[in-house]
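seq/struct pair 1
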Amino acid sequence: MPRSPRSRKKQNLSPPLHHRLNAYTLAASAAGVSLLALAQPSEAEVVYTPAHGLVTRHGSYALDLNNDGVVDFTIADIDMHFDGGSLQSLAAVPAEKGDGVMCGRCASRFAYAEALVQGDAIAKGFSFMSGQAPMANAYLISGGSGQSSYFSLPFANVNHRYLGLRLQLPDGIHFGWARLNVQFVYDSFETRTWVARITGYAYETIPGKLIKAGQISEDEASVLPDSVGKARLALGALALGFIGIPIWRREESESESRVA
């Protein structure tokens, strides 16, 4: 004969314990929902391409940032002459009007390509040149005392510096970078040249999304969003028990006071 199910005896919880259990449930639910949202698959992807490009005297490198078979930027060594001397220049040239090179002194006639370091942000809010962007200049001046030379612009004789790039695609503006080592070589006046080595480049597949110079995957994305930090604090509070809840609240109040 089957046993009849046992009836459960109702337990009356003390108000403090009842309050703690309710708070625990709410905190666990909030943290769970936040982490679930964070765990959703993302279509964002940073596409990185290793490169072994080389630019020497009067040479150029065609940069196809998103590897679609269309040249997006050209990096070129340019030889120019003027009264009393010459100028050997390295420049980045966007292929289309919507493309651009992140620049310094952008509003002046002396604008140039910024030489970014690893971790610098490339995003909306920065200025980009849509025309030829000078990267490095070597001036050779002839005079009564012979020939002298001097360098200017941020890419002159540097290693591991980055061009910040803006790429216009049908779905919107994308941001990317190209990494270079640049040195000036002067064996003779006739053979002088910038030697630019392009060692890699990348772009973000999501229109308008920030990318950092040197970033090669979404795992290296920027600053932790507030929602992630609060979800982690919530889980930390649960792990500590309800002693942790005041810690979470203190973190929030300290953050608000810093902002204020």
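seq/struct pair 2
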Amino acid sequence: MFDILARILNVRELRVKLGITFLLLIVFRLGSFIPTPGVNVKSITDYVASAQGAVGAVLSMADMFTGGALSSMAIFGLGIMPYITASIIFQLLTAIVPALSRIAHEGPTGRKKIAQYVRVATVFLCLIQASMLAYGLSSASVAGEVGSFVAEGVGTWEFFIYIVLSLTVGTMFLMWLGEQIDEFGIGNGISLIIMVGILSRIPRAIARLMSGVDPANSGGSLSLGEVVVLLLLFVGMTLAVVLITLGTRRVPVMQAKAVRGRKTYGGQRQFLPLKVNQANVIPIIFGQAIMQVVAGGASMILGPWAVFMSPGSFWYTVFYIVLILFFCYFYTAIQFNPNEIADNLKQGGMYIPGIRPGKRTADHLSGIMSRIALAGGAFLAIIAVAPQFISQYMGVDYDISGLLGGTGLLIVVGVALDVVQKVESYLLMRNYEGFGIAGGRIKGRRG
């Protein structure tokens, strides 16, 4: 451990990048404690902590992504999720709308245009979400359902303007922080901000877990044996996420032989790696968003019958899994173009053994990717519903069970692996040994 740290610190460029990244992430965490003007923070914190059912699960999930900024109504209360949502929307639109597709294929200039569109869409999403949040808080305060969320001496319009402007500016500042990390730091800035926000919830979750432990088994909420089971589940789920994130299906590819004079070129056997989890965490995000709308609409329309579509119910879980599988296939189909890959292989003089180049190769790759998408979607479904089952059958808070699966664990593991790979690439460029995370022991030139 100390040897790896010494190798990292010996590389000046890497040392500077890590230092800048660390400082910018500290700025993010400090901003998560700056309250929005005109808000009664204590009332909001108490309400989020006491929320139950579907509302409690939604608030807990949103608060996890903001690193606790939502429950304290800090200026970073919306987090970076509006930017993520806008990015995903334009990523899908780029694959569907021909005009955006042409812009995206214009090289760096086209990517800059798409990035500008994403920023503008982020501002609109922030204004909409912040306005809905301000309206909901002010309406609840006026109705007297809870303690007033509005600070004393602050009018309704002042409260509305304070929240909308503060939360919108806060999200745009987070977007700027992420871009600075991309340019001057190491790793993906937006992903690192989300990861730090999720990890900041771990101390609170551990404290709540330990406060409910009853070593004497005299009727407490959790016994020591159940705590051990939770720890083993956490280790097992983390290991499974690491394996599926790094997992690939290697398709054998041969290079056509070419004879020039007395020498023969080509003929090497290579592999085309296809990621098992091609869609990453996006199917879970889309599935959660749609099911939250469905659950909210069912509660208003169906009345007492809405229990069948409430979080944790059988039909809710079934529809949630179906949505994850659907979006896994849908997003994989958008990201993976077998015809383009087949054309590239043909132009490069490469072919899959036993498969004709061209359409046969595209069909073969499409069939392989369909089976991989099914396996990846099934794994994502298990990860997504695991916190729900653990919370129900072991009687622990969603803040605790949410760390054992779902979106949070996938993001943390994926971002951590990405940072480790980038640090490893810097070490290998400086003739140091890497971490060996890609299978086996990776060595530098001197190895």
